[in-house]
Amino acid sequence: MREGRPVRVETRHSIQNTPTGTDCSPPTAVANVSQYACQRRTTTENHNKIFTDVMEELAESSEFNESKGPCLAFRQAASVLKSLPSAVHCLKAIQGLPCLGEHTKAVMEEILTFGRSFKVEEIRCDERYQALKLFTSVFGVGPKTAEKWYRRGLRSLQEILTEPNIQLNRMQRAGFLYYSDISKAVSKAEAKAVGCIIEETVHWIAPDAILALTGGFRRGKEYGHDVDFLLTMPEMGKEEGLLLHVIDRLKDQGILLYCDYQGSTFDVSKLPSCRFEDMDCFQKCFLILRLEQGQVEGERGLQRDPGDSRGWRAVRVDLVAPPVDRYAFALLGWTGSRVGLDQIIVK
DNA sequence: CGGCATACG
DNA sequence: CGTAT
DNA sequence: GCCG
């Protein structure tokens, strides 16, 4: 759902070509891939990492070169390959798949033949690519800022921090401050612990509030880069103000390290029906929370060398609060599958 | 050959 | 404008 | 770069 955007429902979205099973691949593997990411199978396992890593590097490189089109194309190619149920062993296996054109297939062929892409290896060696990749790995730093720093001759994060003439904005300050934590994967146990904190906070404010884990952890992933939740109230309109209230409470608890709140842009009267499925319009917030090690299952009580660890880590957390009548739909959008609400709601 | 998302600080 | 999802 |  993070990838390709709106979905206009057309007939061609359903299965078209059932490739005749010539050698290499199971035809079933290929038949069901939609050109739209949100209609694609979302798997926990990526069976084509050797290809998708390269596609994502090509996308990144394109982005650094301000080639928006190619960047999007490579991202979509990576997304399609990630959605496949098994590893691609020969090019025949990807016949008829969307977003995989001549260039992409040539790169894949190279990888199948030599186990590597020479074009990508060149990119990886490039000093500019390396620096921009490093800079953009900081939360709040995008291609433009990274480029600006690169042109000033800066090459390392240390140089950014010691350069006196650089003014970081609030997001970037948080990005540097919690850099190592935010770059680190969030474990399922940590996601659960965050879930408990959010749940306790939410239900202290409104005992009947409905909270659901979404995103990668909802789909059963073992690790993620953030933790996502949907939040609403059973009675229409009561969700108004809830999110800001939750944020206040997190502040009071002293665990809110960063907060970016975005009010709702959802307006029935102004909304064309085609944006029915646009979930970006609900009120939401992007947070960085302080998670105590003691709250994480499996870390409880075990205390290593004092001084070595500070006893907590920072975690990126997203909360989205749609009105209840949009809730089920939003959930569908975030999880990619229809499941009973009861098995999704936290606790 | 044009489009490729959009809200916010 | 730049970054985020 | 891919698609229509």
Count of distinct strands: 7
Strand portion: 5-15%
Architecture of the largest domain in CATH? 2-Layer Sandwich
- Provide the structure class: alpha+beta
Unreliable residue stretches: 1-23, 25-29, 270-276, 337-344
- State the helix count: 14
- Look at the structure and name the CATH superfamily of the largest domain: Beta Polymerase, domain 2
Per the principal axes of the C-alpha atoms, what is the gross shape? Answer: globular
Following the backbone from N to C, one meets helices and strands in this order, namely HHHHHHHHHHEHEHEEHEEEH
CATH fold type of the largest domain: Beta Polymerase, domain 2
Quick one: biggest sheet?
5 strands, mixed
The domain tally reads 3
The end-to-end span amounts to: 25 Å
Helix content range: 40-55%
* Radius of gyration over C-alpha positions, nearest whole angstrom: 22 Å
Kindly report the average pLDDT value: 82
Write the layout of secondary structure elements.
Elements: H1 27-31, H2 49-64, H3 68-82, H4 102-114, H5 118-125, H6 127-136, H7 143-151, H8 157-162, H9 170-177, H10 179-183, E1 186-187, H11 188-205, E2 210-214, H12 215-218, E3 223-224, E4 227-232, H13 242-252, E5 256-262, E6 283-292, E7 312-321, H14 324-335
Parallel strand pairs: 4-7
Antiparallel strand pairs: 1-3, 2-4, 5-6, 6-7
Helix pairs in contact: 2-3, 6-7, 11-13
This protein binds three DNA strands through α3, α4, α7 and β5.
Main location: nucleus
Cofactor: Mg(2+)
GO molecular function: DNA binding; DNA nucleotidylexotransferase activity; DNA-directed DNA polymerase activity; metal ion binding
